[in-house]
Specification:
Layout lengths: L6 E4 L10 H4 L12 H13 L4 E6 L4 E11 L12 H14 L5 E9 L8 H15 L4 E6 L12 H6 L10 H8 L3 E14 L1 H8 L7 E3 L8 E4 L4 E14 L4
Parallel strand pairs: 4-5
Antiparallel strand pairs: 1-2, 2-3, 3-4, 5-9, 6-9, 7-8, 8-9
Length: 253
């Protein structure tokens, strides 16, 4: 059997490798997606307080970061309702649990990304399997993922609850990223309309999207999964990114 050409490196082991992410992973997510409101409150704490839950796939021979997995342990009661509204709520819940001394029961994936130079090699599946292995090591039974569906930007006006239920002719999920997760054992859950909030000034949104917003209203924009609402009087653009819940049983190897 051929040995993998990468090793799994946690942030707690080699934090300097993460300095390469901004350049090596440019374009993996659209610009607007780098400005989520929740990040201002929790991003630095993510790496300071949960360093063992952030990891890389690293090619030692080539000195290259291939992929990243970011996650947080949080409580979950096992019910669909207990998953909550999505990414932002999960991040806040993880820190509330930690501050209160409450033991987590699940691992929530915050991001699973493959460098553009190494996409098409099946590394997203490797990252998902590493997340379940990380959960097992931490004594957690489940990995929960508020998935950002990759083809939803083609249907920004379709409610996420409907989009999440779409299937192909063979019965597999319509969305490629959701389909990949189900293909490695994930269980498809429900869509959530307000997974992550991104706000900015009108000028910021025009810079992020390359569009002009001449008047108040809702606008479809490139790479957006739903419209952004522009309020010129308040100089504010508000966007709620939808998501789809997928759960993985970490006890299965």
């Amino acid at each position: 059997m051929t040995r993998p050409s990468w090793t799994v490196v946690r942030y707690s082991e080699r934090p300097e490798l993460w300095d390469r992410i901004p350049a090596d992973f440019a374009g993996v997510v659209p610009e607007y997606n780098l400005h989520g409101d929740i990040a201002d409150d929790y991003w630095d704490r993510l790496f300071a307080e949960f360093p063992a839950y952030q990891f890389l796939l690293y090619d030692e021979e080539g000195g290259t970061v291939l992929g990243t997995g970011r996650s947080l342990p949080r409580g979950w009661d096992g019910s669909p309702e207990g998953l909550g509204p999505g990414l932002d709520d999960s991040i806040a819940a993880a820190f509330r649990d930690r501050d209160a001394g409450t033991a987590p029961t699940a691992l929530c994936a915050l991001g699973v990304e493959v460098s553009p130079a190494h996409q098409g090699r099946g590394l997203s599946k490797v990252l998902l399997r590493e997340l379940t292995a990380l959960a097992r090591t931490a004594g957690l039974d489940t990995v929960i993922v508020p998935v950002r569906p990759t083809h939803k930007d083609r249907y920004p006006l379709v409610p996420i609850e409907r989009y999440a239920a779409w299937t192909r002719d063979d019965g597999t999920p319509f969305d490629p990223w959701v389909r990949t997760q189900v293909g490695v054992g994930g269980v498809l859950g429900h869509g959530v309309a307000r997974s992550s909030r991104i706000t900015g000034t009108v000028a910021e949104w025009e810079s992020w999207t390359g569009l002009a917003f001449p008047e108040d209203g809702d606008y479809v924009f490139p790479a957006g999964l739903a419209p952004v609402h522009i309020d010129r009087g308040r100089d504010l653009g508000t966007y709620w990114e939808p998501g789809v819940w997928v759960t993985h049983d970490a006890r299965r190897r």
